[in-house]
Amino acid sequence: MFPQLPVLAKGESFRLDLLIGVKLGKRKFWVNGEVDGTAHDVTQDAQRAAKIDLPRVRLTAEDTLAPDCVERLIAQLTAL
Q: What share of the chain is helix, strand, coil (3-state, %, to 5)?
């Protein structure tokens, strides 16, 4: 996982909450990880996700503090 990573996609610069490298069996891919907190602007998420063109998982700020945070994230990644 790479937190707060700037990326350039389709001529625009974006900052991802998390860029996650995933290996599930023989599949390898990158995932856009969104962390939705109180200051998070969800109105731009869909536009950014379309331009970045990566699968996306979402976590709330509360999810990141939960004891089973990693298991929740793995469950979302497996569902992709």
A: 35, 45, 20
Is residue 36 within 8 A of residue 27, CB to CB? The reply is no
Tokens (6 digits) for 59:
């976590």
Q: Number of helices and strands (H, E) in the chain?
A: 3, 4
Q: How far is the C-alpha of 30 from the C-alpha of 2, rounded, in Å?
A: 11
pTM: 0.77
Q: Please, which residues bridge with residue 12 across strands?
A: 9
- pLDDT of 40 reads 66
Strand partners, 15: 6
What is the reported pLDDT for 27?
87
* Max Cα–Cα distance, the chain, nearest Å: 39
40-52: average pLDDT: 76
